[in-house]
Design goal:
Blueprint lengths: L2 H8 L2 E4 L6 E9 L3 H8 E3 L13 E7 L15 E11 L10 E8 L1 H13 L3 E2 L4 H8 L5 H12 L3 H11 L2 H25 L7 H23 L1 H9 L1 E6 L6 H9 L17 E7 L2 E7 L9 H16 L2 E7 L7 E2 L4 E2 L14 E6 L9 H11 L7 E3 L8 H12 L29 H22 L4 H19 L5 H8 L7
Parallel strand pairs: 1-7, 8-10, 8-11, 11-14, 14-15
Antiparallel strand pairs: 1-2, 2-6, 3-4, 4-5, 5-6, 9-10, 12-13
Length: 506
């Protein structure tokens, strides 16, 4: 640990750890070497035990606001103003989240009370913590590696159960263990090749060459498997957007309400009701998906309607999936999304710039009987609609909605015809312990890609017998990428970029 990092750890810091705003209870954290003295000076237990003398026990008492930062004589007659009463828990180093002396002050959740507690701690020598500083201290004290520390941020931001499970798995070390396994295999391979540099007179037997070739291949496969989880990781961490587009009065708003299982959008029989985009977020296969209901596309219209159509085009460009909604009782025709006019019967909707897309024929409840929609679907498919991405639904009755949702799930994860793309197949090498799947983030994926390129280059040099020294250069580069995922040997600037994304108090 460099001197800058050491000085960084010597500060005593304070911050609110619960969400901002009023609530029943709030938690203020104090961390650093000055924590025991600070707690003694501002907390009066209403019982025989003091938190400093009873670590990891919840002690009830009162917090007072000292008039200055100097120790005061209670017998002097000066009254200490009570801030609040509540519970203090002291965690003695190294048995705390950060590895330092740490205290949690559990007070009433009023904004004024939290603000007064933090101000009192700062008057006694603490400084306000930076975003992510508590987790950063845990990393610097080797309580977590960097991949686990990043999972803390993922867990805080998780909006679905699946995202939370993924984050908990990686906080428990799922990704770290897999990276460590690959790192150990890479070191073993490098050590064997390094020994050939020192003892070149020893030849390499055929079985050894086969074994080393297999070791290169296993490393490449392991890295590719981890990289393949990037797409799922992005969806779980960042969510997705799906735009519902099409002409007026085809039931886009009704479809949004059916997907949301609530009356989110206003529905009327009059075309042009939706003049602006309307959004709602649903949980789809563990992904937080924002459904965007857009203004109907048609030529002409007044100025306000044209502004809505402009926003429709913008929503299409920002969407991960574009869904064209059509009226199942109408003619078989697709929309020209540039002009808002209809195309010929054989034209197929393809979304925007190659985005995944689907077609929904809504209002099948108006076709007259249950079998009519199936016959009509066959007729529409024969006319050119993509059979893998065409769905018949009734937003009014809910018929076909579950099948449509399954199709959206397949599109999100890169599937066609309901079969997941092989790059997203579950792989035991890319899975953590029960409870969650490994899903690498953008930083991890970039470093994995760099390591894979270096290993591939090293293998090529080794097969071509270009010299073991050249092979070792590439293997060291590959090892550097894996080290950086775990946070080994990283500089302060990179750590700053990682932890600045955290919220204050975590």
């Amino acid at each position: 640990m460099n001197s800058a990092s050491r000085q960084y750890l010597d500060d005593t810091i304070v911050a609110r750890s619960t969400a901002p705003g009023p609530g029943a209870i709030a938690i203020v954290r104090v961390d650093g070497p000055g924590t025991p003295d600070l707690v003694r000076r501002m907390f009066n237990p209403l019982g025989p035990l003091h938190p400093i003398d009873a670590p990891r026990q919840a002690i009830f008492g009162e917090w007072t606001e000292p008039p200055d930062a100097e120790p005061r004589d209670d017998a002097s007659g000066t009254e200490h103003r009570i801030i609040d009463e509540g519970i203090t828990i002291f965690f003695k180093a190294p048995h705390s989240f950060t590895g330092n002396d740490l205290a949690e002050l559990q007070c009433h959740g009023g904004t004024a009370i939290v603000r007064a507690l933090i101000a009192a701690a700062m008057r006694l020598g603490a400084r306000l913590a930076e975003p992510g500083e508590f987790t950063r201290r845990a990393f610097m004290n080797n309580r977590l590696d960097l991949a686990q520390a990043e999972a803390v941020g993922d867990l805080i931001r998780a909006e679905t159960d699946a995202a939370a499970r993924m984050a908990r798995s990686q906080l428990a070390g799922g990704l770290s263990r897999r990276i460590s396994e690959l790192r150990t295999n890479l070191i073993d391979l490098a050590a064997e090749i390094e020994s050939r540099i020192d003892f070149p007179e020893e030849g390499l037997a055929a079985e050894d060459r086969t074994r080393l070739r297999a070791a290169f291949a296993a490393l490449e496969t392991g890295l590719r498997n981890l990289m393949a989880s990037r797409k799922r990781g992005r969806l779980l961490r960042e969510g997705a957007r799906i735009a519902l587009v099409g002409p007026p009065n085809v039931g886009k708003s009704s479809l949004l309400n059916a997907l949301a299982r609530t009356e989110r959008a206003i529905v009327t029989p009059h075309p042009g009701t939706t003049r602006d985009t309307i959004e709602c977020t649903i949980d789809l296969a563990g992904v937080a998906v924002t459904i965007v209901d857009t203004a109907g596309l048609r030529p002409g219209g007044d100025e306000i309607e044209q502004l809505g159509i402009e926003r429709t085009h913008r929503a299409m460009g920002e969407a991960d999936i574009v869904v064209e909604v059509r009226d199942a009782t109408g003619e078989i025709e697709a929309m020209n999304f540039d002009s808002g006019s209809s195309c010929g019967p054989g034209d197929e909707f393809s979304g925007v710039a190659g985005q995944p897309s689907a077609i929904v024929f809504n209002k099948i409840d108006c076709l007259g009987n249950e079998d009519a929609s199936d016959e009509d679907l066959a007729r529409r498919r024969a006319a050119g609609a993509d059979s893998a991405r065409a769905y018949h639904v009734s937003a009014l009755t809910g018929r076909g909605i579950e099948e449509f949702e399954a199709g959206l799930e397949a599109l999100l994860f890169g599937a066609t015809n309901g079969v997941t793309d092989e790059t997203d197949q579950d792989d035991t090498s890319a899975r953590a312990e029960p409870g969650g799947q490994i899903a690498v983030g953008a930083r991890h994926a970039s470093l994995l890609e760099s390591s894979l390129a270096s290993i591939t280059q090293a293998r090529g040099a080794w097969v071509a017998q270009a010299g073991d020294e050249l092979v070792m250069i590439d293997l060291r580069e590959a090892l550097l990428g894996l080290d950086q995922i775990l946070g080994l040997g990283l500089g302060e600037a990179i750590l700053d970029r990682v932890f600045e994304k955290f919220c204050l108090g975590k």
